[in-house]
Amino acid sequence: MHLKRWLTSIVLLPLILLLIFRGGETLFFFLIAAANLLVLGEYGRIVYHPKPDPVYRALSYGLGTLLLWYGFQDDLAAVALLLVLNFMAAAMICLVRFGTDERVVDRLFRQTAGMIYGPLLLLCLIWLRRGADGPSWILVALCLSFAGDTAAYYAGTTLGKHPLAPKLSPKKTMEGAVGGIFGAVGAAAAVKAFLLPAVSWPVGLAFFFLAAAAGQAGDLFESSLKRAAGVKDSGELLPGHGGLLDRIDALLFVAPVVLAAKLTFG
């Protein structure tokens, strides 16, 4: 399992970096749009377990893709309207099913939450990629999530003694969480030093710590979804990692904080 994780990372990381720095904003949008479909599929696999819900999943796929497209076009009114229309459509489905499905209201809110958890958080990455310094900010976000995850794993396995959240993820420790935060901030600081010299160190580091902590929360949040559903992994797409959502759960929470940092520095 450990070897599979490293082999998957070694193969994918150069391709991802090449696409980010050389692919342009349009190609990056299509990458995120594809990731969005996978994330929504894996999210649905978790929250609708053990009874799949193709109707709500189809609604998420369609309106979630449109939300990303209009966000890419910077049409914020359309993004807001799509979230409203999604809720209304989900409510209509709920009304039709009411009386025949005891979990109908619960499924309604799971679907609407998924539109935020998937498309809206992924949209932050599309906005983060904007501008000449966009690729550098994307690299910061990747460091804060992936380097933090790696550092947390090794710090936890070598130093971990105190459980962090035993009911959510029994193997995670407080020592691992602290190691992950400092590993994430260190990697992001290295990117900032070389690629974003104009960013103020005090404010930048403050944002990095906030983003690293958000990444830890994102990891635990997905664990809570899986724990509640009785599902081990979100999917089997990435050998040694599980599903795509298992790999980017921290990144989804990191992205809005890094976007806030970018907007702060103009």
Polypeptide structure, described:
The chain is mainly alpha-helical. It has one domain (2-264). The protein has helices at 2-22, 24-47, 54-72, 76-97, 104-128, 134-159, 174-195, 201-229, 244-264; strands spanning 163-165, 169-173. Strands 1-2 form a two-stranded antiparallel ribbon. Helix 6 (134-159) packs antiparallel against helix 7 and helix 6 (134-159) crosses helix 9 (244-264). The longest helix has 29 residues, at 201-229. It is globular, with a radius of gyration of 19 Å.
Features:
about 270 residues; mainly alpha; globular
What is the beta-strand fraction? Answer: under 5%
Number of helices: 9
Report the uncertain regions.
Answer: none
Radius of gyration, whole Å: 19 Å
SSE series: HHHHHHEEHHH
> What characteristic shape results from the CA principal axes?
globular
- Helical content stands at over 70%
Distance between the termini: 42 Å
SS elements, strand count: 2
Mean pLDDT rating: 91
Question: What count of domains describes the coordinates?
Answer: 1
Strand order, main sheet: write it out.
Answer: 1-2
Class computed from helices, strands and strand pairing: mainly alpha
Strand count, sense and closure of the main sheet? 2 strands, antiparallel
